[in-house]
């Protein structure tokens, strides 16, 4: 479990509290802004600043983004023996390198700029509120709107300066195997339910390219019908738990979905072993499962819930007709829906196991995060379009050029601008030359072609 966590407030059942404590609970207002905790204790500076951010901006969206940036920075500082208030200039310089240069931990330039903005604004607030010294240098930078103060450290990193790490086809089974081995065995030679869940989570990310927030909040009812034919099947990602707040219709890799179906199988699937007696405080119980292909469900009171508009909070309250959580991924601890913070860290934790296994055999495995599963999905889909194997409706089955392939993959990622997708899939040309449709679709398990890393970074 991560030492630095983001906690979100919510309502409680006053009657249940009174029954347990024997006294009525105080009428304490629900905390709406994110709360940062370190080793289970509230981090007061970050939490106070996030409350101010929540109050003066658009609420949850900006405060949540800043909380995630501070969580990452606080975790880094904790590993280096200090705290947010104890950060010094050397820590800032090292963190810039960690996030923008190190191959194992670098992120997209746009992600780094969000982190940099949050760090700058937090320490400016800390200076004004408590008189602490800034751990970075402020420069006065001219802009069309007049001079502004800008944090020198980490400035000038281009938005596309730190591309992601799309996995090559032979690396995918290595990552999935690491997921199943990363937790203790359930029985001799049998992966634990948590390991099977982690493998299914990663497989779903590879299948559809959804972000961690979306993956963590999908229900068991939103997977494509397993009886659908084809190696690329139609799938919908709901808008209410997606970054763009728009429903996305995409082509998902059936090969990866099969692992999710196995995890979900009512008799042999590992998910049934994660079910415990957990219940939400205010459940929404489905009257019956939705009709196959339907994107809505009715509760026992007759209220209709459309999956596209169901919020994360509503999804966590949704129960099946049998009274079990309807969310796809569950906590191994108590059977509750897997938290977003745990889901966000899951792939990186598994990646470390894959990296250790590779080092033990004298090989290399890249460090990947959940967002890199999105890069992989886009790269492999665009490569299929590039070699003419992804769309039977293409005239004569002819391939498209690299630009057209990127544009088609952009639809699957929900990007309005194909240039955004181009940042994700710089390796599509190289990958399409090195692998065939069978590799991307999982029909073969070939070893990577002997090619230098420099060549692997070649643009399409």
From TrEMBL:
Q: Where is the Core-binding (CB) domain?
A: 44-127
Task: Enumerate the InterPro entries for this protein.
Answer: CB (IPR044068), DNA_brk_join_enz (IPR011010), Integrase-like_cat_sf (IPR013762), Integrase_catalytic (IPR002104), Integrase_recombinase_N (IPR010998), Integrase_SAM-like_N (IPR004107), Tyrosine_recombinase_XerCD (IPR050090)
Q: Which residues cross the membrane?
A: none
Keyword Cell cycle recorded:
no
Q: Where is the Tyr recombinase domain?
A: 162-439
Q: Does the keyword DNA-binding apply?
A: yes
Alphabetically ordered keywords of this record: DNA integration, DNA recombination, DNA-binding
Q: Which Pfam families match?
A: Phage_int_SAM_1
Q: Where is this region: Disordered?
A: 439-460
Which family does the record claim for this protein?
Belongs to the 'phage' integrase family.
What's the name of the protein?
Site-specific integrase
Q: What is the species of this protein? A: Arthrobacter hankyongi
